[in-house]
Amino acid sequence: MSRSTLLYHQLLSLLSQYSKYKDFRHLKALAWMINALICSSKINLSEWESYVISRANQAQSIERRWQRFVHNNRIKVKSLYVPLVMAAISNTHGKRLYLALDTTVLWNRYCMIHLSVICGGRAIPFLWKVMEHKSSTVAFKEYKTMLKLSHRLLAKYTDVMLLADRGFANHQLIDWLTTSQWHYCLRLPCDVTIHKARRHPLELKYLCPLKSEAILYHNVGLWLDGKCRSNLVLANVKGAKEPWAVITDENPTLQALWQYALRFRIEELFLDSKSGAFQLEESKIRDRKALERLYLVVALALLFATTHGMTVQLKGLRTQVDPHWERGLSYLKIGLRWLKGVLYKGRSLFDPTPLCSQNTLPCFASSKARRKYYDAISFTRISELKCLRV
Questions:
Q1: 38-52 per-position pLDDT tens digit
Q2: Distance between CA 126 and CA 137 in Å, rounded?
Q3: H or E element that contains 280
Q4: 129 beta partners
Q5: How many helices (H) and strands (E) does the chain have?
Q6: Neighbouring C-beta atoms of residue 186, cutoff 10 Å
Q7: What was the pLDDT predicted at 330?
Q8: Would you call 106 helix, strand, or coil by DSSP?
Q9: Is 47 helix (H, G, I), strand (E, B) or coil?
Q10: What pLDDT score does 327 carry?
Q11: Helix, coil or strand: residue 176
């Protein structure tokens, strides 16, 4: 077996072991596409010919193969991907599972709704949906089905927390989370009306504390009607551009701010997908369903490379691909460099292992980033108020 096909054969073995497929040829095409993406780091179907072994002699024939895959309605993204990601997060049983919900816009035309798992200091794609929508703000009905499916898939996980930014805080989501018994940490926009201890409701922007102060509210009413009740943490951190207002179903403590901050891992995922690692925005495909299938290739490459990067770290081989004294590259980039070394330097290809439930070693690209991470956030005053329903 040639070294150039070693990665392909492991990918094909994983896909055939876990994924539910209708035609084995779909798995072969998918494995070659992931192989080509890892090698080229580009979502450009016409540039993948060099990384694929095929009987076809014409580059156009190979590119048409990828085009047929992404436009094939028989290929079900969830059936191919979900079993693999469920196996990857199997180590998180018995621990709190964090899910991050967010959107990103491509070419000012398509909006991708992402639901990701926060695991080992990284965000891993779990479910996604592409819609023709120029704005990053979407209605609850657009992602309700995604939440229902994830709730069914994660039925065995008894401790799940949803993290989401200001665009997702609404009545419908809070009601659904209450029914599903998921925990949540959601950030509120500054124009939300708050019903608290005072006689008249006020907009959130008038309640913000002074710099280096925090206020913990119990059982505040939200929006104009005030019927939705939640706990609120208001914090004005020194050095931050604007105050944070985070609602949670748990007791309001500063821990809620730390938990909400885990949501920023999905921003790193978007960066890796769009420009940092795989150049998704270079794709020439402009079809909603085709983009969902194309992102399947990206998600599997992200998952496979990240698990490999964690394995390299745990085996003590990180310094072979990371020049920093301590880890300065993400698990994704460690995995990508190692996998390219498998093809071009004869390195060992490890068996995939589940994702680590904890971040084994924080990643710092510079000494400045390290100092910023470990700088303690202190408050000169922390107040606590309990609001009674009138």
A1: 988 888 888 898 888
A2: 20
A3: none
A4: 113
A5: 11, 11
A6: 24
A7: 84
A8: strand
A9: helix
A10: 76
A11: helix
Nearest to 70 by CA among 279, 296, 299: 296
Token output for 1: 């077996």
Region of 325 please: left (phi>0), alpha (psi -120 to 50) or beta. alpha
* Closest residue by Cα to residue 349 from 319, 304, 387: 304
Q: Cβ contacts of residue 37 below 8 Å, gap of 6+?
A: 43, 48, 278, 297, 298, 301
**Contact (Cβ atoms closer than 8 angstroms) between residue 203 and residue 347:** no
Q: What share of the chain is helix, strand, coil (3-state, %, to 5)?
A: 45, 20, 35
Question: How sure is the predictor about 357, in pLDDT bands with cuts at 50, 70 and 90?
Answer: low
Q: What type of residue sits at position 189?
A: P
Going from the C-alpha of 191 to that of each of 174, 228, 263, 367, the distances in angstroms are 18, 16, 22, 38
The structure tokens 């004294």 sit at 325
The Cα 188–Cα 244 span in angstroms is 8
- Between the two ends of the chain, the Cα-to-Cα distance in Å is 74
Give the CB-side neighbour count of residue 283, counting CA atoms within 13 A: 28
pLDDT averaged over every residue in the chain: 87
Q: Which are the contacts of 81, defined by CB distance < 8 A and separation ≥ 6?
A: 19, 125, 296, 299, 300
Structural contact between residues 182 and 162, judged by C-beta atoms closer than 8 angstroms = yes
**Whole-model pTM?**
0.90
Interatomic CA distance for residues 228 and 116, integer angstroms: 26
Tell me which H or E stretch contains 63.
helix 59-70
Residues 6+ apart with CB under 8 A from 258: none
| Distance between CA atoms of residues 237 and 210, nearest Å | 9
pLDDT category at 58 given cuts 50, 70, 90 is: confident
pLDDT in tens, 321-350: 988 777 778 889 999 999 988 888 888 888
Helix (H) or strand (E) holding 161: strand 160-164
The two structure tokens encoding residue 83: 């079993």
